[in-house]
Each structure stands twice: as C-alpha cells, then as structure tokens.
Amino acid sequence: MLQSLHVHNFALLEDAKVDFAPGFNVFTGETGAGKSILVDAFGVVLGNRASADYVRTGADSFWVQAVFDISGGQEQLQAFLEEQGIEVEDDLFLKRQVTSAGKSKATVNGVQVPLNVLKAISTMLVDIHGQHENQALLKADAPRILVDGFGGERIADCLKAYSNLYNKYVALQKKLEALKADSEQQDLLLDRYDWEVKEIEAAKLRLGEEEALEDEAKVLQNSEKIITAVNGAYNLLDDDKAVLSLLAKAKGNLQNAVRYDSRLSILLDNLDSAWLTLDDCRQELGEYLSRTDFNGERAVEVQQRLDTIYRLHKKYGGSTEAVLNYLEATKVKYNELLDLASTISKAEKEMASLTRDLTACADVLTAERKAQAEKLAQLITSHIHDLAMPNGVFEVAFTKLDKFTSNGRDGMTFMFSANMGEPVSELEKVASGGELSRIALAIKTVMSSSGDVPTMVFDEIDTGVGGVTAQMMAEKIASISKIGQVLCITHLPQIAAFADRHIFIEKQSSDGRTATMLSVLDEEQRIRELMRMTAGTSESSVAYENAKELLTAAEAVKDKR
Fold it and tell me: Which of 155, 485, 491, 545 has the fewest CB atoms within 10 Å of its CB?
C-alpha cells in the first residue's frame, strides 16, 4: 500500500507531500491545476521515462519519493528484494532523482538500482490505469493476456507444458531445415569437409609444438650473434693471459703463504673453487662450439613448419587446440552427411511425433482458456450491466491459428454488444470511448480480486461518463478499494463522494511564481469541493445541500458493502 508521495521541484510541484489512506483516495481540482503532473511524477518514481524537461525552472534537479507499506506479506516482492541485496523492512522507499543535465539515479531503501529493477519492483506494487490503457484493450494480444491472467495457475500449468514441447519443436524444426539445406548441397559439403580433414591431418599438429619451434627459430635466426658471443667468452677463459691463468697464479701465491699462516686456507679454498667452476664453464663453452652446427636448411624447415601451423590457426580457430577440435567436429559432420538421408528421415519421424504431442497439448491449453474465458466474460458482462449497460454482452471469441506460436495456437478477440437484439462484434469496431471506459473498469473490478498488486491508480477513467453511469462507476471503484488501495483522479462529484481521503489539487501564485499545492480536505471542505464540481461557482444553499446529500448517499452505499 502506498503510504506517502513526496515530489520536489517537479514542473509546477515545488515541494508537495501527501499521505494516503488504505482505501479510496481521490484527487480533484480545476482543469490545469496539475493532476496529470502528479500522475507523471508518480510514474517517474515507478520507473517511467524521466525527462529533464520536468525539472522546475531555476532548479538543478527534481526528485520524487514514494513510501510503501509492505508489511502485509507480498512474498514474491520480498524474495525479489532479497535477490537484489535490498534489506526487507515493513516500509519500502522508492526514490528517483533526475538532474537538469538528464542524469537519473534510482534508489530502493537507499540502495542504488538499475531502472529495470525499479520497474520490476513497481509492477508488484502499483497498477496505473489511464485513458491509454482503455485503448490497450484493442491490442491484438490483450484478450490472451487477460484470459491467461484470469486463469491463474490452471492456465499457467497448461502453458508451461506447452512451452516445453514448443521449445523442442522449434529446435527440431531448425535442425531439420538445416539438414535439408545440407542435402541440397551434399556433394559440395562432402568435398569441403574431406579437403579440410585431409589438410589438417596431413599437418600432424601436436600440442606444444608451436612454442618449441618458435624458441628454436629464435636461436637459428640469431646464430651469428650467439657464436660470436660464446666464442668471445671461451677465449677470455682459455687464453694464457685470461682469468684462469691469473687465478692459477693467485692460487700459487696463497699456497706459499698458507704454509706460514693457516688462516689464509679458507681464501685458498675459495680461489680453488672459483677456478674449478670457471674451468668447467670453459670446457662446456668449448663443447657447445664443437657440437653446434647452425644449419641454414634447418632454419628454413622451422620457418616453413611455423608458416603451416599459423595458416591452419588462421583458417580453423586461432590455436592448435582449436584446429584439432575443428578436425574432430568436421569428421562428425562428414560422417553425418554420408548418412544424411537416414538422418533426415529419422528427424522427420521425430517431428511428426512431436507435432502430434504439441497439437494435443495446444488443444488442452485451448480448452482451459475457453473455460476460463467463458467465466471471465460472464463476470465482465455482469459488471457492465451495473454500469448502465443493462443489455450489454461481452464475449471472447476463439479462432485456431494456422501455426504454433510461443503462446499456443489460439487467436482470441474481444466481442461486444451494447444493445438488445444487436449481435456481438469486434470490440474495437463498436465500442464508444465511454463504453470502453466502463468495460475497462468492469475488467479491473474482476481482476482486482486476485490481489496481486496492492495499489491501483485510475487516471481520469471517467472520461465521457456522466449521470447514472457515473454513480455506477463510483460504486465499482469503491468496491475495488475494499480489496486494495485505490488512487483516483476524477472530474465527477459522484466518484469523489465515495472517497476515504479527498485530496485537492490547486495552483497558487506567490512572488511571481506559480506552484501546484496538495491538501487533504476535511468534511466541510469536501462539501465545498463537491459544490464546485457539481454547480461551478454557485454558492447557494441548494448547491450546498445537494453536495452534502451526495456525501451522505455515498456513505450509505459504502456501509452496505
């Protein structure tokens, strides 16, 4: 349930805050006072498009905050909040801020969230119904969505079973199409696969070979530098005037000294060890020079082998492992192609069996939809009778589609007749704007019993309605408010009279600026507002008594429910 809405620097709403009652909340005010702006602001905090054009002149940004009481359960919402890492409390704070530069920030209980998360949360909190939602009834998929929603788990279970088979059907259909396409160019593909297999197998690739060859190539390419460096190092060690000769002389000197001072024996050992190490190094350098043969032909062989490897990498996957995997996959495809006729025949038999199963499942789904659609149509018809259309008839017509779709095989159309003796026709062809509003309200009344969304907003749903119909509509909306919270923007006093909380919207000017203000009306103020809505500027005692009587009559109806 929506507890409060706080709007700051949003168009004409400089700083407006209003608290809501659990039942029927009504907004009224003069045309142009800002009622639609308030709905726009509420939509923004629920995740609708937020334009920087809404930022009040002279301000850097606007923000809107809505506080909801979710202590009543709503397990699906609470589970979703936990998935998003949002701490679940009794109160849920949604806030949206938009700067004049167009940057938007959304938070839920202080945690910043992406816009899609905000929208997902909002759909579990609020259902906004405006004039454009009336037109949504005329969309092609509206009947299916409504019937499936009304059918609840019964249809959901049928649809789940159908979807599982449908997904298999689509996958097999794609596979069969690919196989038939392959069949049309079988010889060409066999030649291609055979060539690729032979090319890769002829190369006899080995994992790790590329790295070893690259190391060898580096040595071969730099052979002259290596020989020069190694030979120089060997000469420096092997020459009579080189390090080893000098170390030998140093050893001889120390050996003479050690005879007189044993403390020098450690240094003598170190010199001896150094001499042995360097002599080993000299010998190994000599062996390296004697056995190393930098063959130019080998360098060519290595480079050619690397070129082969690189070419195969480029053609078949970028690495030796990828090329070998491609080889195995191509062998499989080659063998499948050799037995393509048998594979296609097997897939066609599987498709025939799956089509029979899917047809049967679609028929079960259709039967359940028809049963639920009949119940739904009867309830909607009953409610439109209460809305000053005593002879109205609402139906859902079914046709069988010529192909399977992800939602079944049902074409569904809303049918309607407002007058006795007139056959039902497609809703979009026969319903007037006022009739469409009443049908929409009848549907909302039926669907509200599900209780899935705790707060419902009616934005001028009463357009084109008056007189007795307005009274009937008021009673319907009031009955919905007994199940869940209702927010309603209206021009009709008959509807406003049923409010549990009446909020007045008006423009006020001060210091050369205009702002929209919200105020909760007490009983006397409500009477004055109903007078304005009924009689305009008239301040007569008759107008006053009529307004008062309107409130009394509404209370009497509410008490009976």
Answer: 545
